[in-house]
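Interim report to the steering committee. The following record documents the input for Arsenate reductase family protein (116 residues).
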Amino acid sequence: MEIWHNPRCSKSRAAKAALDEAGVEYTERRYLDEPPTAEEFDRTLTAIGAEPWDVARLTEPVAKELDLKNLPHDRAEWIKVMVANPVLIQRPIIVTDSTAVVARDPQSVSKALDGS
């Protein structure tokens, strides 16, 4: 299990604390420092059941600079932009062997734990 974590984000800290409380082993990936590759992000999106625009942080300044909300919905192009600017990726994301979830609430963390 891996958590894509931003320690400055309260939702990310809460998800990490829930994993700690559950006593599961996981790897913490500070994805702003170690962004996913395009292939990793594509696999993770498939596991989530989402498109990149579904997990994009459109309020980030870089999203506005790139006019991301008006970028045509081309999965490969969005993935390329988001891995080049990982701050655009919603957080936290918990990746297990069988699933991945954007874990912004306790129910999503539970889903990830059930899928581990």
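DSSP finds five helices and four strands in the chain. The committee is asked to note this result when reviewing the revised timeline.
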